[in-house]
Every structure is written in structure tokens, then in C-alpha cells.
């Protein structure tokens, strides 16, 4: 099955053909023989042109439900790759992309130690918004751009998970 | 004093480390654990294990009475505190001894004398050991500001009862001091239960070099050479090595003797570390004394061939130090990388979670001191250090290249770790040349490796193969399988038809 | 000669071992593999990997032309043969050199001179090195019988081209010799492609002690002390150590000098081992010379702090030996246990299969040289050794107790291993006291540990919990799960309703 | 659910009760609290009376299909334990047990190098019957008791799997 590969802003057409014990990988139309074996659950040993590469795949959440995301780990460094069924890509292109709001989310699980702003405050880029504690280290979370605090969704002392919403900022123009 | 059954009042890698030596010596071990640590490696490794309460350390690992009760219940006649937690708690040590249980550590009086950094400075000055210029006592924010202005910026703010870099920060001007003090006090309070801080003149591009010392109950002392721990981030040691590339034989002897002066001044018994700052001219200044086993004791073990935990137990038993100063070897070079559950791509934020995959390096001259296993949880309640990887080589560069190779074999899945960061460091020229200072990581140099065309190709092929396999399986009726259970395919949950 | 890319003409732990040193030295590596080894660890670790044919070694790892072709194809300019396979094949070494590829091993002439054990005896005798009384040449079964009668039983039958104990047997009388000869020849043929055998007078309760030597291309020689390998089963080494508890400093120097006489006599270059038998009176007799790296080189690495594979590469490059005799250290004591896939409860029969679970020990002074991983297959086509576990201690007993502790952490599932057997050995009094001889394992002393009431109770509870969980899951409708995939429950297939 | 535990010739009634977060194990009627957690797939950490025991379970084939067999590994040594549903045990006891014949099976996968006997031969206890090679070692398989070779089911050169039948021996009396 043909798929579209997304690596950052790159896209490539890819397809794996298995025939008569030979596996061929098509990359934007160019064919190359690969020898590919799942050696451990989620761990693939790939030999191509003699090079031996060990790839570990972890599923990664992709904001687009039609895109299959994987976090590939190469020598203990993760890289995000995503694959898309090209038919779905066409459909997706027809719709509009929702703009992402200024939501401050928790970068790790931890405890909210102190809120440094309150609802309605105007904040400048880089201004500290709240202090989180995890593993005995206190970390300041700062505003990524100027804006207005539209809603604070946590209280001091609250325990939050990774990705949990902490507060919502709106652009000053939206005021 | 007998040491026939040891309770380890700690968790993680250091608890496992102590268990290993006890097992080698034929001494049964008792683990304690908080609710979230029920499945932790130290619980599985120990001969006995007892729950001591909820996850927060102050409700479990820091509750002296609970530890004492487990010791009584299990019949342990000695307690090894590891590092952190109760290791420098003189009251705990006193209580254990009062109950006839040997505390594997220094006498409580020594802990007290060295426990307050300001008091320790006074001891060092009186013992004739050089110290960094600074104040001798804790004071209010206002007085600290006045003293700082007198001393001149930059200055260091430090927790009086602290250690391990927590609550410590470099402050470049009065404004920073004002905003930094409350935060430093907050961290000091939450980490050490005491919000006292003090200030010292900051040494420019200092090197952190420390001397491992040992004393016994018979007044004998030795120093087991130095370790350099200048590679730090946020005042936390990241890489340690022994010996130090900065130290000459003369400086080594001078530092060793200075360290023993401090140890003798407090009648020190057991393993201790005297920390110094050194400048480019090889002047060195007493910083503090850690009255416990250090995280980085492994590198000293590599170059001396000694087991420091074993020595701690021998000394606690009342035996004499096994070797005299002239019998202690300095053989080759050792490196240690602290493997943290943290995300180099997100400014090294802690990355707790379940370790879904784990392969640790081995082979010649590689040592991994781990506190985790595949499937275990790295909890947000404790220190994010999951392992210490150490290597040895005849020379410094050989130890570094061995470390680079070992890091390349390390695989940790499910959470992020700083393994790849360490790999980059091992190839960083200032590090390789030995030009270390405690601020060397302040300017970020970490950059993810580029994925070349071949690697992209390989990853893409693996991804497509994985999805093709999944879809093939999903399109087969349930139970029509080839006898191979789908069980181990942990991707199943991502099937989308 | 340049060594800029190394092809490793081997598999298993030794291939991984060589890859590690190459990586440390910054030298890219090329693996070769047979069909069944596609997923083997050495294939995954190497930078490049090429298939060289079907599983049987004589159709893949032993086919010189295939190895040569891969070297040419990949641009490797050096070949490391490991041990076994082509490591002592002079023709292969010649062919590689003729094609401009450096053979990381001795000159082909030295291999030939030492390759026939009978010829090697002659060299040793002429060089002034003591040998075991025996015949100097191979002969027919009839002539061997006559010679044996003359020499007097017991005698040893050995493969002329052999090594590693294969084709070797102790024979107590003429009857045993008659029935044993065909079998010895059969094994010799299948292992070494040559059915010549010879006989030697058997030494009673001999100790197997060998000297590690090194020579360079400039005529320099050193010996890296001895190893004792007396703990054997079926003439296969099971445990090795360095130094030997039997060897005094005088004996060590005498053996070292005797070994160098043999090495010099054949202008030896690279790593080699001169094996001796020693009797209770510390007489020693030349047995054979192994013209390659030995399985047990790790224990020498522990006590000298040297990397023998690195030395091999340096010597192959034409460099001088890095150290002179007086610079070589002998530091502490090292033990090595060979971890085999074999079943101690079935007379140590090989136990090939899939390794379903694997946890290897680590911590201070523990080294595991493994060629497998969790999920890999131990094939019936090759040697059943899956790993070498080695430990170090300042003294022999400390190294033994460290080994006992490390073995206690080793977990291998899916196949049987001899880990528990080694654990028993580490507590076996004759072993601990150092009273070793090559027949010490002939009388079986292996006995499974009794399971006490507490352990029975724990196991039973785990079993019941496992079955209860399974039945609970089985009684739930499919898809009603708690979000936790059943995937990882590999018991699912045993569900019975 | 109550079960019967079989360890060699021992039998015990066992049952695990989980109530209000407390787990109690009944062993021949005697109750003891246990804390039991599956820490890795198939790996259980059991704490009882303070003792911490790590148990790894592998399913083991039991000749009786009504018996659930496990090979429990304790510190790398395997022990065979089996559990039986007691209702089934009663039924099984009513039936007759089949006598096991003198079948020589392969103790490991390997190649039959040489047959040392032929159909109809009378053999004595301990007499070598054939030579198998696996992993370059030749191993003699011997008769466990005296008997007559009734059928040889492999040829020289054949490759066999573990448990594969090699030959069948009958007792001399059955002659």
C-alpha cells in the first residue's frame, strides 16, 4: 500500500513490496532492496546496501487522527516520523485547519506550586506564568508570546499530568 | 558492633548497590518502600521488604520512626542510609544507635558539625583548610543583600542544610538576588525542611574537585584520591571522573592532607567527601563536607579497586581500615555519566513514566548501577536519576571512548533520557581536552543528530513494515491466526481500519 | 598495514566483543551471518552486515571465499577471525593477505607450525620447553594401540588439528581405546575437517594452566601472566581464572619464559596462548599453543587492565607492543564462568531455543560478554555458549563471592542454562580452596536446591494469581477491557475455560 | 477458586482470596497474608511475612490435559509445579492411567549420527542405542532398562526435534 511519509516538513511517497522473498522499498518512485526483520517487539533490524540499522518504533500521538505517527528511536534518540494514507491526505487538504490557541500545558507531571498571574492579566513574551514542581526541582513556565490570560484552569497545589491544560491565553488583539 | 542484617533506608540504584555488597559479604538485607515503590528493583532484590507509607518521602523514606520499627520488626542490627533521605540526619543516627542499631555512617556529632555549611566553614578555617570568602552564618534577606553588596557580585546563594545543588544559584546582581532568594528558600525548605540560606563569593569558572576520605573508630584516616565533578547543569553533577585532569601529584597530596585535617577535626568515622572549588591557578577552597557515601563513589572504586560500601560495613563493625595510605592504588581513569529520566529536547525537564524497553551496555570495563528494570516506573516523586553508567580505561581518553561506546549501546524506551546528550558530550572538544568548569553546560551545545538519508530510509521502511503487518493482521478474522500469538504485538492498540 | 574497517569473520559473543573495541577505536565494523543468524546480536551491532549462506558453518562461516568476497564488497581492509571457525586456518590467512587484507592474527607459517599438535610438540622440545611424554606423529588405529601399550595407560587421545576439547578423551585401557578411537576421529573430522588423532601419557589430576603471550612485528614479546582453566567438563573449560592459585611467582616467571621460547621459535605475532599441564609438584608440560584470541581472555584483561583486542589491532597495524614486560601489572583476581545453553538436570545436554526472558547482572566489577538478547534464538548449529560472565576482586575469594552474587542476578528464560550450576560451584569447598584439577567435575556434585516451605508458598501463590487473572480475563467479553491491552500477557494461549 | 497443588508427590489445597485490598492465601486451610504483584509479564514479586521472593512462571506441558502446569523459576532454577481443578481431579481418579511404554525420545534437537542397534535386538540396561550430534558434541543415548528394540523410527542422518520418537523398546517379557 502506498503511503505518504512526513518528516518535519518533508513528504515522500513510500511503499514496501514483498515478493518471492525479496523486499523492495519504493521512495518517491526509486526502488531499493531492503532486508527487514522484526527482531524484538517494535524493534526492527534493517539492512540496506550492507548497512545495518536498528530501529525501535514507539507509536506517537499525532494531532491529526488520519495520520499514523511513530516515534522512531535510533541509538536512543527519538525522531518523529508520520505516515499518511494518501487518499485521506487529499480529503484533509479539502478541509480547513483549525488555528491553535495560546494554551499553556504542563510539560511534565507535577504539582503547581505558585500561580504568578491571574485571570485577565496582560502578559509579555517570556513573562513567568506559574511555577511547577516535579522531582524536587522548581521550574518556571513562561509565556511563549504576549497576550492576555483568559482562563486559569488549575489552582495552586494541584497535581497535573503531562499535557494537562494550565491556562489559556488569548492574543491581545482579541481583547 | 555487629552488622549481621542490614536495613537499607533508601531506594533506587543506591539501595541496589548496597544490597549487592551485602549479598557478596553474606549479609541478609531488608528493603523499605513507599506505596509507589512496591514493584521497585530494590524491593525485588532484597531478602525482605516492608512498606513504610505513601509516596511523598516525608511520609515514608524520611520518617525515622517507621524505619526504626521495620528494623526492630525484621531484626536488622544495622541501617545503611545510602545518600539523601536520612543519610545526613544526625537525629536519626542518634535514635538508631540509642535503640542498639548500628548506623552505617559517621557519628551523629560529625554530621551536626558538617551539616550546617556555615558551621562547617568555621571548622575548616580552624583546622587550617582554605575556604571560599563568604559569610559564616545564615541571615535575613535584607542582611544578605547588604553582605552581598559588600562582598561584590557575582555571588552564590546556597541552602545551609543543603547538598546536591538543590536551592543553590549563581546571582549576578542585587536584582537577581532579590527575586532569587524566595525561590532558593522555597527549594531549600521542600528539600531539606529548613529554609536557611547563605552566600559566598563566586569563583569564576571554578572546577569542582572533591576528596574521598575514610576514617575508622581507631583514629586511622586515608584519602582515596580525588574526583572531578565540574560538569554540572543547574548545579547538579552530570559527569564525574577520577582522577581529575586538573590535579598534579603535588596538588593531590595537598588536597588530600587538607581534607584529612577537616576529617580529623570532627573525629570522622566512615566514608566522607570533602568538596573543594579549584581555580585555574590550582588554588583550592573548602566548600563543604558530605558525611555519607556519594553518588559518584563508583569512579573511586574503579581507580582504587576497592569496594567503598564494604569498607563502610567493616568500619561500622569496628574493624580497622584495611589499607594504609601508601597501600592505596591509583590505577587508570574512570568516568561516570548520570543517566536521568529527562528530556534533552525540552530543556532537560524530568520525564517520568514507565520504562517500556531497556537494554543496558556491558562488556569490558563497563559498569551500570541501575535502580530500574524494563517495565518499572520512574516516579515523579523522587530523583529522576535511574542509573549511573561508569567506565574505566588506562587513560582518560580511553575511558571517554569506552563511555561513548557504552552509551551507544544504552536503550531506554517509554521515557526520555539524557543518554544521547552524554554521547554528544563525550565528543565535545572542551570536555575531551579536560578543560572543565562548573558553568561549561550553561551555554547549550546539545543538538540532536541529523538523520541522514540512509537512516530516514531505514526508519521509513520499518514503519511501513509495521503498519503493513498490523493491517494484514487486522484484516484476518479473529482466531484464524498462524499459531503465533498476537500477544506480544504491543502495537495492536493503534490499529485503525 | 592499515586497519580502517574490520570484517569480523565470526558470530556470537566474540563478534560482539570485537565490535565493541573497534567502535571504541573509531573503526567501522562489518558482520557476516548465516541464514539463521539474520537476527543475531552481532548483526544488529555491526555497522554493516552481509549474509554468507546457510546455517551449517561449513557452508557459511567456514567458507573462506565468501568471507573474502564480503571483505572486498564492503571495503574492509582487515579481518578479525575471533576464535574457532577460520581463526587457525593458515590457508585463509594466506588468501586474505594475498588479497591485500590484513589478517588480525599471527603469520600463516606460525599457524601451520602450531596447528598440528604433534608438530608443535617437536617445536616445543627443540625450543627447550618441557612437554608431556607422548607420540610425535599421527598414526593408524593399530599403531596407536601398540604405542599406547608401550606408554602405559591411562592415556589421552587428542585431535591433531583440534582445540577446545573436541575429539579429546581419556582412555583407561586398550578396550576403551578401541571403541573410543572411531568416535574421536568422527568428532575430529566434523569439527576440524581432519580425522588425525594422537596420544599422550595422561597426567593424574593435572591442572590446566596457560600463559597469554603477545608478540609484535618488531620481535618484541611479553607474557600477560597465566590463566588457570582446570575446571572442565568433557574436556571443555567451564570456569577460568587469573592468576592461578597454584602458581608461585617463580613458577609464573618460569612458565612465562618457557611460553616465550615457543613464541620466539615460530616468530609469533599477535595474541597467542601457550597451554601447559601442571602437576601437584608444580612441574609443567607444554600441551599446545593456540594461535588466536582465547575465549577466556577476559580474565587476563581484568588483572592487567589491558584490552587484548585493541592490542591485536595495534600489532596488526605494525605498531610496537605498547608495554614492556616490567610495565605489565598483575592486579587482583578475576573469574570467568561460561554461560551455556544446557540443562544441568539432563546431564548438561545442549538446550537450544528462543531466549524468552533475559536479565543480566551488573554493578561493581561485573562484566557480561554476551552474544544474545531477549528474543534471540540459540541455534543448534553452533556452540551453546551464550555469554561469558566475569568478575574481579582484590582477592580470589572476593572474586568468587562477586561471581556468586552476579550469578544470582542472572535470569535466562525459555532455555535452560548452567547459571544455577555455577552458583553451586562457587560454594563448592574444593573450588573455593583452589584445589583444582581437570577431573574435578567428573564426579557429579550438582544437585538442585531444595525449595523450602516459604518458597513453595510464594510460587503457589504466584501460580494461583496467574490462573485467577487468566480466568477472570477469559470470562470477560472481548473488547470490554480496562484499556490495558492483553497483549503483554503471554499466558493467554494457555487459557482453558 | 479452590485448586489442588501438585509438587512432585506432594498435594495441597490452595486458594487465593482477594478482599478489600488484602490478599490471603489458603494453604491446606491455613491462612496467611501475601502481597503479590506481577512486576513483569510472567514475573511475580511475592512478599510474605516480610520475605521478598521473585517468581518467574513459564507454562509447562503437563501430560494430563486437566492439569495446569507451570515451570516456576526461582533464581534461575526451574521447578515444576502443577495446579488442578479439584472437581476434575475426582473425575480423573475414576478413570485408569495408561502405562508408559519404553519409548526413546530425543532429549534435544539434533542429528542422528549413528544407530547402534537394529530392529529386534535385545538390549541391556545402559547399552548405547544411538549417537546424536548437536552443537558439535556427540552424545550416546542409552537404554534405561533391558528390553527388545521393537521399532526404530529414524534413520541415520535424520534431524530430530526435542521429544521426537527415536525408537520403541518393549519389555523382554512382552516378547
Number of domains of chain A: 2
Describe the global form of chain A.
elongated
Evaluate the radius of gyration of chain B: 24 Å
- The CATH homologous superfamily of the largest domain in chain A corresponds to RNA polymerase II/Efflux pump adaptor protein, barrel-sandwich hybrid domain
What structural class do helix, strand and pairing data of chain A support? Answer: mainly beta
CATH class of the largest domain in chain B: Alpha Beta
Write structural notes for this entry:
Chain A is mainly beta and 175 residues long. Chain A has one helix spanning 86-94; strands at residues 3-7, 10-19, 22-27, 30-40, 43-48, 51-60, 67-74, 77-84, 102-105, 110-115, 122-123, 128-134, 137-142, 147-152, 159-160, 165-170. In chain A, strand 6 (51-60) and strand 7 (67-74) form a beta hairpin. The longest helix of chain A is centred in the middle third of the chain and has 9 residues, at 86-94. Residues 90-101 of chain A have low confidence and may be disordered. Chain B has 497 residues and is of the alpha+beta class. Chain B has an 8-stranded antiparallel sheet with strand order 13-12-9-10-11-14-21-19. A 5-stranded parallel sheet of chain B has the order 3-2-1-4-5, with helices on both faces. In chain B, strand 10 and strand 11 (236-242) form a beta hairpin. In chain B, helix 4 runs antiparallel to helix 5 (108-115). Chain B starts with 5 loop residues before the first strand and ends in a 23-residue tail after the last helix. The model of chain B is unreliable at 478-497 (pLDDT under 50). Chains in contact: A-B, A-C, B-C, B-D, C-D. At the C-D interface, helix 8, strand 16, strand 22, helix 13 and helix 15 of C face strand 1, strand 2, strand 4, strand 5 and strand 6 of D.
Amino acid at each position: 500500500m502506498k503511503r505518504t511519509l512526513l518528516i518535519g516538513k518533508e513528504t515522500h511517497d513510500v511503499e514496501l513490496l514483498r515478493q518471492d522473498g525479496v523486499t523492495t522499498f519504493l521512495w518517491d518512485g526509486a526502488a531499493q532492496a531492503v532486508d527487514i526483520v522484526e527482531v524484538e517487539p517494535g524493534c526492527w533490524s534493517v539492512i540496506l546496501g550492507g548497512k545495518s540499522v536498528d530501529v525501535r518504533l514507539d507509536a506517537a500521538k499525532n494531532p491529526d487522527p488520519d495520520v499514523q505517527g511513530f516515534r522512531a528511536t535510533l541509538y536512543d534518540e527519538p525522531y518523529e516520523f508520520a505516515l499518511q494514507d494518501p487518499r485521506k491526505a487529499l480529503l484533509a487538504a479539502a478541509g480547513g485547519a483549525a488555528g491553535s490557541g495560546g494554551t499553556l500545558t504542563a510539560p511534565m507531571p507535577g504539582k503547581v506550586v505558585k500561580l504568578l498571574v491571574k485571570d485577565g492579566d496582560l502578559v509579555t513574551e517570556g513573562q513567568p506564568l506559574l511555577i511547577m514542581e516535579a522531582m524536587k526541582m522548581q521550574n518556571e513556565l513562561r509565556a511563549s508570546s504576549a497576550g492576555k490570560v483568559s482562563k486559569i484552569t488549575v489552582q495552586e497545589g494541584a497535581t497535573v499530568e503531562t499535557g494537562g491544560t494550565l491556562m489559556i491565553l488569548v492574543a491581545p488583539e482579541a481583547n | 558492633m555487629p552488622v549481621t542484617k542490614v536495613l537499607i533506608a533508601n531506594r533506587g540504584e543506591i539501595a541496589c548497590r548496597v544490597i549487592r555488597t551485602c549479598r557478596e559479604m553474606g549479609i541478609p538485607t531488608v528493603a523499605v518502600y513507599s506505596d509507589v515503590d512496591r514493584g521497585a528493583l530494590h524491593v525485588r532484590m532484597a531478602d525482605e521488604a516492608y512498606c513504610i507509607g505513601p509516596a511523598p518521602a516525608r511520609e515514608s523514606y524520611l520518617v525515622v520512626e517507621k524505619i526504626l520499627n521495620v528494623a526492630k520488626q525484621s531484626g536488622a542490627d544495622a541501617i545503611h542510609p545510602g545518600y539523601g533521605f536520612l543519610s545526613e540526619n544526625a537525629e536519626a543516627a542518634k535514635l538508631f544507635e540509642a535503640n542498639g542499631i548500628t548506623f552505617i555512617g559517621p557519628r551523629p556529632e560529625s554530621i551536626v558539625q558538617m551539616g550546617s555549611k556555615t558551621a562547617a566553614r568555621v571548622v575548616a578555617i580552624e583546622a587550617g583548610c582554605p575556604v571560599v570568602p563568604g559569610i559564616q552564618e545564615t541571615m535575613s534577606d535584607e542582611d544578605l543583600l547588604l553582605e552581598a553588596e559588600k562582598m561584590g557580585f557575582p555571588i552564590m546563594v546556597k541552602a545551609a542544610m543543603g547538598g546536591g545543588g538543590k536551592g543553590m544559584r549563581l546571582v549576578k546582581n542585587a536584582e537577581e538576588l532579590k527575586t532569587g532568594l524566595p525561590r532558593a528558600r522555597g527549594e531549600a525548605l521542600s528539600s531539606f525542611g529548613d529554609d536557611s540560606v547563605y552566600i559566598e563569593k563566586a569563583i569564576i569558572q571554578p572546577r569542582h574537585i572533591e576528596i574521598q576520605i575514610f576514617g575508622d573508630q581507631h583514629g586511622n584516616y586515608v584519602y582515596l584520591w580525588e574526583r572531578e565533578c565540574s560538569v554540572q547543569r543547574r548545579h547538579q553533577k552530570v559527569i564525574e571522573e577520577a582522577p581529575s585532569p586538573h590535579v598534579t601529584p603535588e596538588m593531590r597530596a595537598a588536597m588530600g592532607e587538607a581534607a584529612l585535617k577537616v576529617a580529623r577535626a570532627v573525629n570522622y568515622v566512615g566514608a566522607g567527601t570533602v568538596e573543594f572549588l579549584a581555580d585555574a591557578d590550582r588554588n583550592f577552597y573548602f566548600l563543604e563536607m558530605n558525611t555519607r557515601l556519594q553518588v559518584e563513589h563508583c569512579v573511586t572504586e574503579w581507580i582504587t579497586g576497592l569496594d567503598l560500601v564494604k569498607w563502610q560495613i567493616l568500619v561500622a563493625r569496628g574493624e580497622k581500615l584495611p589499607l594504609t595510605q601508601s597501600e592505596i592504588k591509583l590505577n587508570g581513569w574512570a568516568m561516570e555519566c548520570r543517566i536521568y529520566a529527562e528530556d534533552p529536547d525540552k530543556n532537560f525537564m524530568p520525564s517520568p513514566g514507565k520504562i517500556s524497553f531497556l537494554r543496558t551496555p556491558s562488556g569490558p570495563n563497563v559498569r551500570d548501577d541501575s535502580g530500574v528494570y524494563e517495565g518499572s516506573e520512574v516516579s515523579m516523586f523522587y530523583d529522576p536519576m535511574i542509573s549511573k553508567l561508569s567506565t574505566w580505561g588506562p587513560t582518560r581518553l580511553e575511558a571517554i571512548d569506552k563511555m561513548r561506546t557504552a552509551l551507544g549501546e544504552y536503550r531506554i524506551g517509554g521515557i526520555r533520557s539524557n543518554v544521547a546528550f552524554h554521547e554528544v558530550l563525550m565528543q565535545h572538544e572542551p570536555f575531551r581536552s579536560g578543560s572543565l568548569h562548573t558553568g561549561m553546560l550553561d551555554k547549550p551545545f546539545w543538538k540532536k543528530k541529523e538523520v541522514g538519508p540512509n537512516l530516514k530510509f531505514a526508519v521509513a521502511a520499518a514503519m511501513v513494515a509495521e503498519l503493513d503487518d498490523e493491517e494484514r493482521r487486522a484484516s484476518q478474522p479473529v482466531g484464524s491466526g498462524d499459531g503465533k500469538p498476537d500477544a506480544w504485538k504491543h502495537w495492536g492498540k493503534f490499529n485503525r481500519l
